[in-house]
Amino acid sequence: MKIGLAIENKTNLKLFVEEFGLHYDIVLLTENNILNDNFDLIIVDRLNFDYYKSKIIEAKTDQKPSILPVLLIVEQKYRKRLKSEIFDYIEDIIWIPVYKDEIIARVQNMLTIRNLSKKQKKVTKSLNEDKIKLNQELKIKNKELKKRIVEAIHLLVKASEFKDVETSEHIKRVGKYARLVANIHERDSNFSINIFYAAPMHDIGKIGIPESILLKNGKLTNSEFKKIKEHPSIGHKILQEGNTEVMKMGTNIALHHHEYYDGSGYPEGLSGKDISLEGRIMTICDVYDALRSERPYKKPYSHDKAIDIILNGDERTSPDQFDPNLLDILKKNHKEFDNIYKKSII
Question: Where is the signal peptide (predicted)?
Fold first, then answer.
């Protein structure tokens, strides 16, 4: 894999070259090679970022839907002076002074995400090629297509796990909750099967959110919260080119799982049935499991406490946020939710 470096400080530059030069192809960034060398990671300091900004944006655009990660190195004194829009063009920040162990962990993590992103692009391309052959061997190809869809989902979900505190068990549970609700809602069996596979992709957009925000223990600043609210739109952009039923449903779920029935959600402030059914189902399932799960900012709640919050509200949650029909399904079948959760932690 190829890493592009643009670092003025000779000590920091030497540290990166020595740590990664034996295992990766290290290239000093120039105006000529930034668009032509197909980098897997760009590491740049503040001054060079300003200098290469337009080229970095162009390189990231050219490589879509794959994600070209950019790691920015910034002096501590600029922490409060960074403009919020800079987060539109980078994936993570390391503050100077830099520490060897932190650098190794961050760079390896970003390269892992890059590798998974490239694999997902290849899998999606392969899925589209398979579609052309469906008329010849429809029955056989349907089985193969489903297998590859699941592989693509697993790759996407695994990529998001590298950057998020949410566990793989959370991802599995929300699919089971969603399938349960869909079955009770009396949708056709295909809808229930599709939502089971699509629900785990709800937070795939967090790939595009810096770890410094996702893993922060304290309260988010306004700019940080604004950034994290972009993950539904990022997830939508990643998945929107998928043309299977599961991928289309996953696209809706990624975009709509933070929209609320009363219009108080994001990113578009949709309300009522303007929100897709799969999005409305995902919202209530995700909130339930989030309440049950430990987070950097909260302890896990009991089943009874989680249900009480959803049905009666607290300072952050209101029952008006959820589809009344789905709220009724949860109320009548909440023990099934608890069973799914308990089985996942045994």
Answer: none
